[in-house]
Specification:
By secondary structure, the chain is an alpha+beta fold. 50% of the residues lie in helices and 17% in strands.
Length: 223
Amino acid sequence: MTPQASPDNPAGPPAGDDSGPGHDADHTVPEQDSGPEQDSGPEQDSGPEQDSGPEQDSGPEQDSGSDRYHERLAVPLWWWLAAAVLTGVVGYEIQLSAHRAAWSWVGYVAVGLLCVWMLWSLGRNTVRVTADQELHAGRARLPRAVISRGATIPATAKSAALGRQLDPAAFLVHRAWVKTMVLLVLDDPDDPTPYWLVSTRDPAGVLAALDLPDAAAEAGAEG
């Protein structure tokens, strides 16, 4: 009985006992081995993706809607029309000099692209006053705190302001196709610049955005 019981018992109860752990091991091994799948540290560590600093660091573009004043010193429209005529004339001359070869049409494209680049680069500068009343003229910035007074420069006085009356130490942002300017006198002991002269099509609008009275208008009223 004893020898028969020993093979029966290993074949019976041990098999039943081993089947439980065996099934548990079969189930737990994939669950434990799925650690690399659940350990999505590299996937969840999306620091470079979430670090959208460079995308959000577009202050001048995003803040343009909240500016108190914004103006682009673009070239006049007729300059673009003149560039179109120039493109046609020069392109035709190139085509004639090439004896109307198949590649001669490239002259139109080359001259046209050159004109577009020149006109765009000439008129890409902007004049704007931010929400905190800081003047941006091109790449230069001027805080409102250092401006003591301002005045409009009409088209009739522009040549004098840029000629005999001009202080060599003044800061200029001048575009010849813009006829009017604004003058901003500084009160900054750390800056030797006496004043700024900035081309703008609406000098009164710039002064209003800076909360500055127009000294030229006041002088005219007193006179």
